[in-house]
Amino acid sequence: MSGLTLSNAPSGPTRPARPVGGIRKWWHSRLGAPLLLEITIVVTLLLIYKAARLLAEGDHALAVHHALQVIDFEKALGVFNEENAQALVLKSTAAIKVLNVYYLWAHFSVTIAMLVWLYVKKPLGYLSVRRVLVVVTGLGLVGHALYPLAPPRMLDLYGHSFGFVDTALKFGPNSYGAGGTYGNLANQFAAMPSLHFAWAVVVAWGVIKFASSRWRYLAALHPIMTLLAIVLTANHYWTDAAVGLILVPIGILGDRYLPHWHSKHQHHLADMPPVAIAAEDAGARELTPTS
């Protein structure tokens, strides 16, 4: 009589257990998409972000006009104090250099580090944060195209003296223009909304939501440092950051309604480390033929 029966161990010589499907199955079961595809998506997002900022570069006169509008708006609210705040930090050259470095490097490096960590440790969290970043970035680029805005540090160049100092140009490292890290490959009028700040808030949200460590709330320091860096270096107004912040809950709502390409089984595996997945596979009962 032949058939299929459940057995915990096959008859005959025993062989070492092998995780079913190996590493490749683990990556696919965790994400439903290969690593190369995810790298391509993230790199494409970054390239679109940089390219669209360039394509959206607006007229100088219009950008300065919008800057004066933002200043009048902040004056009406009683919050136009960026120059006074900058004057305080300018008393410490070391402090302003730290903010310059944070403005220049933390925007991309911290975001990428967080995405890599989520991809490895919390794949469903990675997919969620990635979708939020896509929505926030898309809306931000629309804002850059529709409302070109001259940052505070550029106002003196157009005859409007408010006392702002271009700290990157004066103290280094410089971000824009001749000798700057980005050179002329950036739209300096892409200030409204501040995607620097919006991305930083998304990073903090992602870490706090998906990490389990008691230290995860320290991630809130990143948007705080970013806010200080973008305003005290005269690259943004408070209003730019406020509008960037508004984009984040919109992005989170977008994550809820955008298609989710993962299965119920991936929900089960989402919070399991690779060792646990391998152990679960190795210890599972198998269907073995008998005669």
SSE topology sketch:
Blueprint: E1 3-7, H1 22-31, H2 35-55, H3 60-77, H4 82-89, H5 93-121, H6 123-146, H7 167-171, H8 195-210, H9 221-232, H10 238-257, H11 264-269, H12 274-283, E2 286-290
Antiparallel strand pairs: 1-2
What does this structure look like?
- The protein is mainly alpha-helical and about 290 residues long.
- The protein has one domain.
- Helix content is about 60%, strand content about 5%.
- It is built from twelve helices and two strands.
- It has a two-stranded antiparallel ribbon.
- Helix 5 packs antiparallel against helix 9, helix 6 runs antiparallel to helix 8 and helix 8 packs across helix 10.
- The termini are close together.
Query: How do the helices and strands follow one another from N- to C-terminus?
Result: EHHHHHHHHHHHHE
Q: Per the principal axes of the C-alpha atoms, what is the gross shape?
A: globular
Distance between the termini: 6 Å
What do the pLDDT scores average to? 78
Query: Structural class of the helix and strand makeup?
Result: mainly alpha
Determine Rg (CA atoms, Å).
Answer: 25 Å
In short:
This protein has 291 residues and is mainly alpha-helical. The chain has twelve helices and two strands; from the N terminus they run E-H-H-H-H-H-H-H-H-H-H-H-H-E.
Which features characterize this protein?
disordered N terminus; disordered C terminus; 291 residues; mainly alpha; single chain; two-stranded antiparallel ribbon
